[in-house]
Design a protein that fits this description.
four-stranded mixed sheet; 12 helices; 266 residues; 26% strand; alpha+beta; 39% helix
Length: 266
């Protein structure tokens, strides 16, 4: 009798478990599918545009050249490689000076299960080069073309020892300043380095709702980046060029200062 009761009890438990499994896997499928498609909140940082440097007469010393970068949606490999190769073929067909194998290597190096952001495969293309094909590329589902200015020095190497330069940030610099992971470059020398924090600006923030497929539903809030901070120097580029012409093929040094101590040329 006791054995029969135990058998009945265990049978009821197993039946209950089977019913529950059936309910979760079959009957509740629509509910959990709807739950998985519900929106979630995602925060995106907006890279600030680096500020320009001008001389005492408002002549540009360091400015930003307008250009764009090209990115591709992540997770287009592993059973969907044909999509990735198709998108790369489209890009190369429209911009034949790009190399498909190089773009593929850049994509694969950054693609992972943990990355949900578009992967940069081209860091900079000039405005003139991208404009004829901008609409064609940017309207494609898996390709993203966004502005990406590049530092430009109109006076070339004139006063370069004062101005310095920017270059790609290394890992040590990124660890010290997380913003560099977003903007990519940092002042390495001269004024560009000394005033890097000011010129670099402060990232903006965009809070959006996305689906389980990482598709944007709506924008909740938007805080613009603090950017385009202009830095005016006491340096007079006309005087700087004149002194430079006097020192061609000669050795020596000169510093011209105002009566207040401001450096006009060096």
């Amino acid at each position: 009798m006791r054995t029969r009761i135990l058998l009945i009890f265990f049978s009821l438990v197993w039946i209950s478990l089977l019913i529950r499994v059936f309910y979760i896997s079959i009957q509740s499928n629509e509910y959990y599918e709807e739950l998985s498609e519900r929106n979630t909140i995602k925060t995106e940082l907006i890279a600030p545009v680096r500020g320009e440097i001008i001389d005492a007469n408002n002549e540009p010393i360091a400015i930003n050249r307008l250009g764009f970068k090209i990115s591709i949606r992540p997770h287009l490999v592993r059973k969907r490689e044909e999509i990735l190769h198709k998108e790369l073929d489209v890009i190369v067909s429209k911009l034949p000076f790009l190399d498909k194998e190089t773009l593929l290597k850049r994509y694969l190096a950054k693609d992972s299960y943990y990355n949900h952001n578009f992967i940069d495969i081209v860091d900079f293309i000039s405005y003139e080069e991208i404009m004829p094909v901008y609409s064609i590329l940017n309207l494609r589902q898996h390709i993203n073309v966004v502005p990406a200015p590049k530092r430009y020095y109109p006076n070339e190497d004139e006063a370069s020892h004062i101005i310095g330069y920017v270059a790609k940030a290394n890992q040590k610099e990124v660890d010290a300043d997380p913003t560099l992971k977003l903007v990519g470059t940092v002042g390495k020398n001269g004024v560009e380095k000394y005033y890097n924090a000011y010129l670099q600006g402060i990232p903006g923030e965009r809070v959006i709702k996305v689906s389980a497929y990482n598709e944007e539903i709506e924008e909740i809030s938007h805080r613009p980046a603090v950017e385009d901070r202009r830095l005016t120097l006491s340096v007079d580029m006309r005087l700087q060029r004149y002194i430079g012409s006097l020192f061609k093929e000669k050795a020596g040094a000169v510093v011209v200062m105002s009566t207040e101590g401001a450096v006009l040329a060096a």
